[in-house]
């Protein structure tokens, strides 16, 4: 299994196979528009600007499961992200990221990259998953980990991915 086995709807409601991102390292983030961590959108956009020319992607997945901090429609969320933070990285439809109704992608990520003390549950908005170019989660970051603190890991991943041939399976 890898993230390429999943499909999600983008923020406009169009089905997207994550296989479209095959061969690209990425950061997957569950987001919210009305959270204390919402300013991390600026840092995420900075990371995207810094690394997008190196085939690095950031995928944002809004969720309203934590304190009802993303109650808006997908259109409102998209507009908020673009107007307030200039977000140009791909955003997807609001979905559930924890519990029995979590989207299968987030069930997979939670299982493959557990949090502190082996916890599988996503605890809050802006949990981040670093994914290698083979679609495998390599690291999970807490909501408190700001995007600038992930930059060195992204550089290392890009360096390692450049020296490791991707497998086609």
Automatic annotation (TrEMBL):
Active site feature: 35
Domain Thioredoxin: 1-159
Molecular function terms, GO-annotated: peroxidase activity
Top-level taxon in the UniProt lineage: Bacteria
Keywords: Oxidoreductase, Peroxidase
Sections of the chain in a coiled coil: none
This protein's record includes keyword Coiled coil: no
Keyword Cell division recorded: no
GO biological process: cellular response to oxidative stress
Family under the similarity heading: Belongs to the glutathione peroxidase family.
Name used for this protein in its record: Glutathione peroxidase
Annotated source species: Paenibacillus nuruki
Lineage per the UniProt record: Bacteria, Bacillati, Bacillota, Bacilli, Bacillales
């Amino acid at each position: 299994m890898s993230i390429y086995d999943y499909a999600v709807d983008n923020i406009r409601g169009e089905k997207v196979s994550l296989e479209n991102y095959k061969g690209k390292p990425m950061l997957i983030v569950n987001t919210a528009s009305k959270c204390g961590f919402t300013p991390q959108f600026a840092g995420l956009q900075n990371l995207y600007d810094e690394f997008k020319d190196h085939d690095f992607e950031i995928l944002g997945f809004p969720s309203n499961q934590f304190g009802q901090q993303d109650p808006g429609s997908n259109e409102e969320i998209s507009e908020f992200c673009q107007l307030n933070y200039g977000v140009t990285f791909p955003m997807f439809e609001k979905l559930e990221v924890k519990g029995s109704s979590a989207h299968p992608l987030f069930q997979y990520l939670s299982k493959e990259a557990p949090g502190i003390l082996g916890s599988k549950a996503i605890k809050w908005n802006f949990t981040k998953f670093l994914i290698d170019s083979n679609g495998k989660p390599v690291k999970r970051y807490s909501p408190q980990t700001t995007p600038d603190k992930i930059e060195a890991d992204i550089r290392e991943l890009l360096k390692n991915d450049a020296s490791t041939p991707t497998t086609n399976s």
